[in-house]
Design goal:
Length: about 550
């Protein structure tokens, strides 16, 4: 059931679809329509009208205590869809504020074209104690609807009336001019002719064929002009009745009908209009509602981004405890004095991000994790080796300064002090003068050689310091992500040693592939930090020396 997660929040089938196996064991009439696949999965043939009818009758009996009869030649309703509509009407009429003319006691509604099942009144009366006026033009449907109401003992709440053809609201309310109804419901005929009902002209050729059978009499599935003209007639009736009903509503089978109907309501000056979507199984339906009351609260329509993005798993990899201990042994080289597994891995990650000029800051996290919020403003982790080789070649091709002149000394050395060496605020004594904009490449045989690169712009006579990118700058960014380092196996008490898992959660940006590249770079850098910059990393060498888990 692909759309079940988007059902109305109160729909009982949203998180618990019908259990066919259980229902088959309890109801013999349903059991004969159930089949079991070779894999043991219990299913139902939704293209068989008798099977669909058996399911509807069984669900109404099991979940609502209702016993109904439906002829095969008339519309067989699906319970989850009708339940979605009922719950939406609850949202509509439950949001009435301060209406002095509100009718005390149970709500009153009208079901236009109730059908043989009379399902909306039966559900509304059973669940909420609503009073219903149910209208029907078809003789067979009228007789079955009246019988279904009587055999469930709901004649005090539901009145089924036979009305002439093409009668909607005006004629049905002539005899009860004093009553103010809270709402009307309608499941209009969707199609204008037989070809449209078969999907010849109305169904996109790229869509798969319907997964269920289409049942219903002529008056139930077809009307002149289809659902669009049918609902327009209800709109015109509402313009005369106005406040005789608090809410007018209709279900729609085609999304393309929604916009012209809303435009019609706008032209007529209707003050309150809203719509929604009904999602169930593989079926989508839409509904439109409008009101002439100023004091009703209008439920918000569904977001345009109704289809939730697929939940993406974070990019992650794990460092097992033996791997973490090797990193701990190398930690003093980056000035890290921590001994806990989590703090050591976090220090290495922060050091690597700093070298890459990736903006990062710590954010609050739990005891067994550390969290960093990353903002990448430039792609500094791609083709690192090639960049390093190119800049080495540029350094070799630079002309040397003459020994005489103004006494300046120009030498090419390492770009930054050794991690264990002293720090000074004065200009570095070994900095060379070279054209502005030339990059100096760090090329030590330490932890980052062969894995990452630091480039610094050296201004003439300005020393060797490079200001990091400002976190408050408004420059565009490539992506933002949340990186978590979690200490595994901390269920019993707080531990300092253990496996560490790094996870990168996408927040926003241009391309998720960039985050994937950075994640791979972090993995490789941690490996090179252990083996040294001159070690050639291959998957075989990694797996043979120490354990690392990648996901």
């Amino acid at each position: 059931m692909a759309l079940n997660k988007s059902m109305h929040p109160r729909n009982r089938y949203k998180d618990k679809p019908p259990d066919f196996a259980y229902l088959a064991s309890k109801y013999p009439d349903f059991q004969k329509h159930v089949h079991t696949s070779l894999t043991g999965r219990v299913g139902l043939n939704f293209k068989d009208p008798e099977a669909v009818r058996a399911l509807t009758c069984t669900l109404l009996k099991e979940d609502f205590g209702l016993s109904i009869e439906i002829p095969l030649e008339r519309l067989i309703p699906t319970v989850p869809l009708r339940l979605n509509y009922i719950h939406w009407v609850e949202d509509l009429i439950g949001s009435i504020d301060g209406d002095e003319t509100a009718v005390e006691g149970p709500r009153r509604g009208i079901d236009i074209g109730t059908g043989a099942s009379c399902i909306y009144p039966l559900l509304g009366a059973t669940m909420n104690g609503w009073f219903f006026l149910a209208t029907e033009v078809d003789d067979i449907c009228f007789n079955y609807a009246k019988k279904n109401v009587e055999q469930n003992g709901l004649s005090d709440l539901i009145k089924v009336v036979k009305v002439p053809q093409k009668t909607l609201l005006m004629d049905a309310l002539k005899e009860e001019s004093a009553l103010v109804y809270d709402f009307c419901m309608c499941n209009p005929p969707f199609f204008a002719n037989q070809l449209e009902a078969k999907g010849v002209n109305s169904r996109n050729s790229r869509r798969p064929p319907p997964s269920s059978v289409n049942t219903g009499g002529v008056t139930e599935i077809m009307a002149e002009g289809g659902e669009l003209e049918f609902v327009k007639r209800i709109i015109h009736d509402s313009l005369q009745l106005k406040k005789r009903l608090r809410w007018y509503s209709c279900m729609l089978g085609k999304k393309c009908s929604l916009a012209p109907l809303k435009e019609e309501l706008r032209k007529q000056g209707v003050p309150k209009v809203t719509h929604t979507e009904f999602c169930q199984g593989r079926t989508m339906r839409w509904a439109l509602a409008w009101s002439f009351y100023d004091d009703v609260s209008v439920p918000s329509p569904p977001s345009k981004k109704r289809k939730m993005e697929k939940v993406r798993k974070p990019l992650s990899f794990s460092l097992l405890l033996p791997t973490v201990k090797l990193l701990q042994a190398k930690a003093p080289s980056i000035g890290c004095s921590a001994h806990g597994s989590l703090d050591v891995v976090t220090a290495w990650v922060e050091k690597t991000l700093t070298d890459l000029r990736v903006l990062h800051k710590r954010v609050p996290s739990g005891n067994a994790e550390r969290s960093l919020f990353l903002t990448a403003v430039e792609n500094s982790w791609i083709h690192v080796r090639q960049k390093r080789r190119d800049q080495r070649r540029q350094l070799r091709e630079l002309p040397r300064a003459p020994p005489s002149g103004d006494g300046a000394v120009s030498q090419t050395v390492e770009n930054s002090p050794h991690p264990d060496g002293p720090h000074s605020d004065s200009p570095h004594p070994m900095c060379s003068e070279r054209p502005r904009g030339m990059d100096v490449v760090e090329d030590k045989g330490g932890v980052n050689n062969g894995s990452d690169m630091v480039t610094e712009e050296v201004a003439t006579g300005a020393g060797c310091t490079t200001p990091p990118p400002s976190s408050s700058s408004t420059q565009p960014f490539l992506f933002k992500c949340l990186t978590n380092m979690k200490l595994e196996g901390t269920g019993e008490g707080v531990k300092e040693e253990g496996d560490v898992t790094l996870q990168m959660h996408w927040v926003e940006g241009q391309n998720r592939d960039l985050m994937n590249q950075l994640c791979t770079y972090l993995k490789n850098t941690l490996l090179q930090a252990i083996f040294g910059g001159r070690f050639k990393i291959t998957w075989r060498s990694v797996c043979s020396v120490f354990p690392v888990q990648f996901f």
